[in-house]
Amino acid sequence: MHVRGIQSAELDLFRGQDSSTVENALYSDEGVLEAAAVGVPHETLGEVVAAVVSLKPGFIDKVTEASLIKAARKMSVIPCVFMISLVD
User: Fold this and answer.
1) What is the pTM of this model?
2) What is the pLDDT of residues 28-54, one digit of tens each?
3) DSSP summary character for residue 15
4) SS3 of residue 47 by DSSP
5) Which long-range contacts (CB under 8 A, 24 or more apart) does 28-32 make?
């Protein structure tokens, strides 16, 4: 998945962590087809991690933003707030 023409693996995120850390955590959910993580500005924290996730057919009603956030926080070394957008 590309974000504005940049391969997501090229981006550095929160506190120097690499986007693949978050993406790999999201891919641990069997319903995730594609995932891209980016750092976005945050008023208090300075930067947080946001992800855009495309789900596999048949998982649209089974996977939620909340379940993906929980999985990513559990598996990721990045202890920050996540924002997830599910896309078709």
Assistant:
1) 0.72
2) 899 999 998 888 887 887 777 888 999
3) G
4) strand
5) 28/71, 28/75, 29/63, 29/67, 29/68, 29/71, 30/56, 30/59, 31/55, 31/56, 31/58, 31/59, 31/62, 31/63, 32/56, 32/59, 32/63, 32/68
Round to the nearest angstrom and report the end-to-end CA distance of the chain. 13
Residue the block writes with tokens 């391969």: 7
Domains and CATH numbers, the chain: 2-87 (3.30.300.30)
CB 13 within 8 A of CB 19: yes
Q: How far apart are CA 48 and CA 60, in angstroms?
A: 25
